[in-house]
Design a protein that fits this description.
With about 70 residues, the protein is an all-alpha fold. The chain contains 2 helices and no strands. The chain has a domain of about 40 residues.
């Protein structure tokens, strides 16, 4: 049961970091003069990229945990 809690907390932490990164990317895009739709698109792409990198790191480290 404690292992499940660690996995859930790690997943929540990754999503929070991805959201914060996406908000930062959207804000920077907006400060750079991008329109709102463009800034939201950049934020969404950043969010997806962070989740992809987190999944890749997890997949690479998973065999080492056994």
């Amino acid at each position: 049961m404690p292992e499940l809690a660690v996995v859930v907390l790690a997943a929540v932490l990754v999503v929070i970091v991805a959201l914060l990164t996406a908000v930062g990317a959207g804000k920077l895009a907006r400060l750079d003069g991008a329109t709102y739709p463009t800034a939201i698109t950049r934020a969404a792409a950043t969010f997806a990229a962070v989740l992809t990198v987190a999944a890749a790191v997890t997949a690479a480290l998973a065999p080492l945990m056994l």
